[in-house]
Task: structure prediction
Amino acid sequence: MKNRLVYLAKTYLLTVLLFVLAKVVFMLFNHEGHPFTVADMAEVVWHGLSLDLSTALYFLIVPFLLTAVSLWVSIPRWAFLIYYVIMAVAFALAFVADTSLYPFWGFKLDASCLSYLETPTEAMASVSTGYLLVRLGVLIVSASLIFLAYSLISYHAPRISKKIAASALFLLMIPMMVIGIRGGLSESNTNIGQVYYSQNQFLNHSAVNPIFSFLYSLDGHFEDLSQFTFFETEESETLVKGIYTTESIGSDTLLTTQHPQIVIILLESAGEQFADVMPHLQQLKKEGINFNRCYANSWRTDRGTVAILSGYPTFPTVSIMKYPEKSRTMPGIALALKQQGYTTSYLYGGDINFTSMRSYLIGTGWEALTSMDDYSLDEQHSAKWGVRDDITFQTLFDNITNSATPHLWGYSTLSSHEPWDVPSAKIEERGEGREERGEKKEKTLWKENSDKVFNAFAYLDYCLYDFISRLKKTPQWKDLLIVITADHGINHGQIDNTTPLEKNHIPMVWVGGAIREPRIISTLCNQSDLAATLLAQLGLQHDEFAFSRDVLSESYTHPTAVNNYSNAQWIVDSTGHVGYDFDGQRFTVDDCRDSQQLLRVSKAILQVTSNDLQNR
Result:
């Protein structure tokens, strides 16, 4: 039994070692135009190790099963050798292809390479015969060496007497392997984004395991969006004409400066449906710029985050954030401001690898990332989803008050999410004179609600109020612009998908010392319009944000908002609103003067935007 376990351990460690060596070769081969140091190489190996360890477990499954079966029946050695041949060829193909294609593609090996197999002549036309022969030679030598390495550690033992005990041990190892493949017990599964750590994308790409990248893109291959092709191209473009414009003409000036310090806060699930339990937010609307007809683009955090930070639409069946090959092509508020000399930081108290959030943030210009891993163990477990909001609001406050350079901060709250586990509204404190007597006084921080959902939003409201109240007393307040919005609304009580005007309505409030004067902006818009509207206020072009509109521009002549969820889309404009289920081919909401025409516009928007995404 001991020999079998040693054999499996050697097989696993050899696989990991091969992955590490492949990274080193990848970096050395692709060094031109991508300078790096030995320390960079060590960091790449270290940060990529978690993905390597997980991927290696996939390839241990067959030896593990063969070894387990060999406890009961004799397994010939050639069965192991056949598997080694397959592994050796697969690994060599992946390593050589990844290393060779990167200078052309600029991204890691994924399933898109399969499309070139349909036209091999055209694919090979870009390189010389000598180039191909060298790669073929390297492929053969690599596969041979990998096979030799595995064959040297292969082990096949005769059956042993303690079969039942040994089999039980193997069974106990199965859940451990599953956990390892999954990447642990956290909310997020193993994904490419977990190894991203640098603003240098070459180093991030070097850390990615090419085999995992290929399998991940193959298994979760970007969905064909052709189902959203409803019209001829010219007709769809005619239907959306006037809805999307990248021009800013005659926009009002809302700010006292075009170079403010900027904070963008995404309140988890905080739709306007919770206004009654968020009185402090209602007060902030009176003090700042209140966009009172803003609607969320989607119903999930990963989708809403991309809509807000990239000014990009969402889709009924696809989350862009989950596909690094697409998310890396997104424009970004952070990218735009980095070009203007801003430093960028993002704070999220949860697992930043969830839904590949890390790779999206880094790819769109966010430099310093802070997540639950940067907090103590007690703080990491202060809420179901990670670090609770009062703790992370304090982190944000400290970061703002200790920064002297032009800065953009992004921040996603998390406590207002099921299971709604927020601290009690009443705390015990010791006051002057009572401390010596051992007396305690109860202090109410916010009005606690018997409804735990309402209570979570009341807690969030208090955290926001406390944060801004303290900022007002600092010198940073004078040049500060704080954008407060929500990532999406939720179903609660009588509010659900059948009441989209209520469910999808979210706050969009700008406050801070950089605000010229309080205003109410009653123009219909989406959260995705923040990018163009904000950049226009800073005097910056926003042409790359093709689907984000400057709400204050005279060119915004057809105010429209859309929201999609689970293969359905809702749209509202001046004529009314309709919702449509693409699976059931039926209206879910119909309150419009001409519902068929508005549905045509909705379909055209989906067609134009999905075509743009498909072609990225």
Q: What stands out?
A: The chain has 22 helices and 17 strands. The chain has a mean pLDDT of 88.
